[in-house]
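Predict the 3D structure for this chain.
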Amino acid sequence: RLYRAYRMKETLRLILKIKDTDEAEAALKRWLWWASHSRIDAFKELYLKIKRHRDHILNAIRLGMSNARIEATNNKIKLIVRKAYGFRNIQNMLDMVYLVCSDLRIPLPNRKSRGA
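Done. Predicted structure below.
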């Protein structure tokens, strides 16, 4: 069972990396059949979720888009808030978020810049 679950997970991961939409759609259809006939409850639940959001998943494959960058930014913001143990006001928090999430590099005093 563990090996079968691993194969199903890896097959789905490979399907989501396919660039050709028609090929991905056919592979996803085969995977959905496999998952629906599986005796593993977690994959039966996943089958229902993927079936419900199939069009959105295929659109993500077609457009090559992901929410990974947004999730990473959200994680950075949560980390900033947790490290600070709260802020005195909302503006201080927003300033820190802008500073950390921007590409702004502030040179530290008494440090030689690289490449000099």
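The chain has a mean pLDDT of 86.
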